[in-house]
Amino acid sequence: MTLQIDTLAYTNRLRWLAPEQKLLFAIALLILIAFSHPPVQLLIAIWVSCWTVIYAKIPLKIYLKLVYIAIFFWLTSLPALVINGIHIDYFNLIQDDAIIGLNVGSYYIYISHDGIEQGLTILTRAIASVSCLYFVMLTIPFTELLQTLRRFGFPVILTDILLLMYRFIFVLLNTASQIWIAQKSRGGYSTFIIGIKSLSLLIGQLLRRTLENYRQVSLSLASRGFNGEFKVWYPHRYHLSQRYAIEAIIGYVVLIILEWR
Length: 261
What we know:
The chain is mainly alpha-helical.
């Protein structure tokens, strides 16, 4: 999936659009998401999704897979928000909030109405936020994103760390895939016990190979006279789009008006 995202970032239909314009658009929407209500957040998610799928021509299937990942993490946190418990002596305090529940010993476990509302609020905000994040990820190559952040005044050391982290994502995925295929071909996951043991070996080998790869990268950088800053080349073949800028400004103003009302 990571390799596919990187490929789409270099081949999407908004590739020619200046990364500064796309990044400022996403940041402005993220600021609005932080202070808006769920209906406006849903409108933002739909609007940005249209930019990503229709304008940038990102395949809908891939985009929905990414959205499903965010929804899955939301579902894992939902029980902690919805399910509450209280001592039976204080039941009268939560009568209006409890939708349904049952007695467990001296405690009353119930589904909270406020918890459901809070979960839905988190869902709309999360979907809107990740929509902006996916728009940046799928339309701006990572190296060009880092160069844009540098022009915005981000510390060089921070962008260099991000670049190294991004590179090692591919190393980890490739190494883990090779080890997993080798283990599976030898029956390493035939039973649950053997699978747990194979997984522990995979994690140990992954850590060892990652440290070895890091040592090799450090030696190669030192041998090439690394001076503490990565220099990444990218072509300046971008231009600002007046049409997209006007559409973004009008849409943003409409969203602010809807939120204000």
